[in-house]
Specification:
Helix content: 25-40%
Shape: globular
Distance between the termini: 17 Å
Number of strands: 13
Order of helices and strands: HEEEEHEEEEHHEEEEEHHHH
Largest sheet: 7 strands, antiparallel
Amino acid sequence: AAEAGLPALGYNTPLRAINQVLWQHMTQAGVTAFRPASLRHFELDQAGVRIHLDAAGHPVLHAQLLVAADGARSAVREQLGQSAQTRDYGQSAIVTAVRPQYPHDGVAYERFLPGGPLAILPKPDDDHGHACSLVWTVATNELPEWMGLDDAEFLTRAADRFGERLGRLLALGQRHSYPLHRVVSEALTAPRTVFIGNAAQSLHPVAAQGFNLGLRDVAALAEVLREAADAGHAALLSDYVARRRQDRQRVSDFTDLLVRLFSNTVPGLRQLRHLGLLALELDTPARQAILQQNLGLATALPETTSRP
């Protein structure tokens, strides 16, 4: 962080806190929210898009532009018949909360294991002291075994693989699991439609870059639309695609490379991985490149993301 002139390399923020702030800003801006709601279908015409919601009263909305931010299994993409590149990594993430013996001091850890990375991420302190999120990537065919362990055995195995930096792992929250795939939409736009966030690209969590990439999608789209008379005009959507192309390609390829590099069991590659990680501890061009990449500074940032 000091090398980059920053107070921290990143922040691990509870999603509920982000949602609370977003909701406050939406309310202040007079945004009408329909919830719970899901998309029934939509129709396109020359003037805009008509959106039918499955919500109380079955409202029908009309807009110049439909922003599809509806996740990796985008219903908008499916209705349009657009394809996506999908890679099944054969891995699943087990996510839970743990309470380590020693304070985390705001430090996030990631350990690369043969089955996938094990990350322990700091959470805000609560009434019981310090807590962390645990994200453990395991082979999907071994998932039933890990999910079936009792809490004590799960904590023992997790601590054994993580090491002693935080002492013993003393408590465990509810475990959830998620299959890990790389889903990259073939196109970022369609007539009167734009894809952002996980609907545009859903990445493996190994480099913790997916959420940041989605925020830059939002910022770039906001810049493109700031002075737009017609938010769904084809020229504006082409401008958005051009702004996001390099950042999107670089981050998605970098994340995919990390997954395949550290999951590969080719003889001799393990030692090369060790040497590569050692090189990142030295002041080398590789270290600076990885630092800039993970800070999102490898490509030009949208103006709204660079403001203090």
